[in-house]
């Protein structure tokens, strides 16, 4: 995911973790037994994520990276040509590349014309000058017109993607929305952030509409972690790789703790940002404390809603100005590349 932000927001300080004074008092004090259970659950899930990272790339991520390697990075001029001929194009490739991916161009589909460089060896001048070293040096001879097709113009095997979060969220998504509102963070839904699943701006979080509830919950935990940890002094004291590793580790822990199935999605995401088990271990205290804060709040909200069943939380979909969830999901892999 791509994350942007500023420091003008209500945030948590985290030299050694979130500041306790910034945590809203949304429920009575928990017993030591409950807190120990939460800490044990967090530790168990941290250990599991570390094992996934130490195991290296999952088969899913390896297949995805292999597929993405077949797509070229086009020049600005070719991007303009593609946009002019097919404005809604998402991913284009030549016929051979599509065939290698197990897909075929649908009969009758018109190709998108772009310019491909012609590389050759200009030998004559160097040979005349006796320059044997540069005689066979590759040079640009010119350009020729070739054709590519968008994924929508093809059919066949589905393109590989990274693992997704699955499971039933229940009321936890509403409780998480309530929590971020209580710490002064605004939540909105916008298609403009695509292909990112979420964006953290410092005082505001934007999510991509159209995600499943499980994916939305995981993305919102990730962005909430950024808001709690990475919008003040800690932002300048950490690298992007560290920040993404911390936020996704927290999303993994919290998602798994409420019964979701992240699979290898978080490990794949961290690997895409070149994070690893060593980086995660270095941030272990911050990750564990922040995860425990969020889980304690979710448990407190759950207990409160059970005691007062008539209390309902207004969802963003019902608020004026928010778009309904209607678009298909963009893959995390596209997000990481953005």
How would you describe this protein?
The chain has 338 residues and is of the alpha+beta class. 44% of the residues lie in helices and 12% in strands. It is built from 13 helices and 8 strands. It has helices at residues 32-54, 59-68, 76-85, 95-100, 124-128, 172-182, 213-229, 233-237, 240-257, 265-272, 277-282, 284-307, 332-337, and strands at residues 92-93, 103-105, 112-121, 138-150, 154-156, 186-189, 198-200, 204-207. The strands form 3 sheets. A 3-stranded antiparallel β-sheet has the order 1-4-3. A hairpin with a 3-residue loop joins strand 7 and strand 8. Helix 9 (240-257) packs parallel to helix 12 (284-307). The longest helix is centred in the last third of the chain and has 24 residues, at 284-307. Mean pLDDT is 75; it is low at 1-27 and 308-338.
Keywords:
338 residues, alpha+beta, three-stranded antiparallel β-sheet, three-stranded mixed β-sheet, 13 helices, disordered N terminus, disordered C terminus
SSE blueprint:
Elements: H1 32-54, H2 59-68, H3 76-85, E1 92-93, H4 95-100, E2 103-105, E3 112-121, H5 124-128, E4 138-150, E5 154-156, H6 172-182, E6 186-189, E7 198-200, E8 204-207, H7 213-229, H8 233-237, H9 240-257, H10 265-272, H11 277-282, H12 284-307, H13 332-337
Parallel strand pairs: 6-8
Antiparallel strand pairs: 1-4, 2-5, 3-4, 7-8
Helix pairs in contact: 1-9, 1-10, 1-12, 6-7, 6-12, 7-9, 7-12, 9-10, 9-12
Brief characterization of the structure:
By secondary structure, the protein is an alpha+beta fold. It has helices at residues 32-54, 59-68, 76-85, 95-100, 124-128, 172-182, 213-229, 233-237, 240-257, 265-272, 277-282, 284-307, 332-337, and strands at residues 92-93, 103-105, 112-121, 138-150, 154-156, 186-189, 198-200, 204-207.
């Amino acid at each position: 995911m791509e994350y942007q932000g500023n420091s003008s927001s209500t945030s948590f300080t985290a030299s050694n973790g979130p500041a306790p004074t910034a945590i809203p008092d949304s429920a009575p004090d928990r017993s030591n037994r409950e807190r120990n259970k939460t800490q044990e659950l967090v530790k168990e899930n941290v250990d599991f994520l570390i094992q996934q990272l130490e195991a290296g790339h999952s088969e899913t991520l390896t297949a995805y990276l292999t597929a993405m390697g077949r797509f070229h990075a086009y020049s600005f001029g070719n991007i303009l040509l593609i946009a002019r001929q097919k404005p809604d194009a998402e991913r284009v490739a030549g016929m051979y590349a599509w065939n290698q991916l197990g897909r075929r161009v649908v009969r009758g589909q018109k190709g998108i014309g772009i310019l491909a460089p012609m590389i050759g060896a200009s030998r004559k001048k160097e040979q005349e000058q006796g320059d044997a070293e540069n005689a066979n040096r590759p040079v640009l001879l010119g350009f020729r017109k070739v054709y590519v097709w968008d994924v929508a113009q093809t059919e066949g095997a589905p393109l590989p993607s990274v693992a997704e979060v699955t499971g039933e969220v229940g009321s936890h998504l509403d409780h998480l929305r309530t929590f971020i509102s209580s710490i002064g963070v605004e939540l909105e839904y916008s298609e403009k952030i695509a292909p990112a699943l979420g964006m953290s701006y410092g005082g505001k979080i934007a999510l991509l509409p159209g995600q499943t509830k499980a994916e939305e919950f995981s993305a919102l935990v990730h962005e909430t972690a950024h808001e709690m940890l990475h919008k003040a002094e800690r932002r300048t004291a950490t690298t992007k790789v560290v920040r993404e590793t911390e936020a996704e580790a927290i999303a993994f822990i919290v998602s798994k703790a409420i019964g979701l199935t992240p699979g290898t999605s978080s490990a794949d995401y961290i690997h895409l940002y070149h994070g690893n088990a060593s980086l995660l271990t270095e941030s272990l205290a911050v990750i564990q404390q922040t995860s425990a804060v969020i889980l304690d709040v979710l448990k407190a909200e759950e207990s409160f809603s059970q005691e007062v069943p008539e209390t309902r939380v207004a969802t963003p979909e019902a608020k004026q100005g928010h778009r309904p969830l209607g678009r298909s999901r963009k893959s995390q892999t596209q997000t990481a590349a953005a």
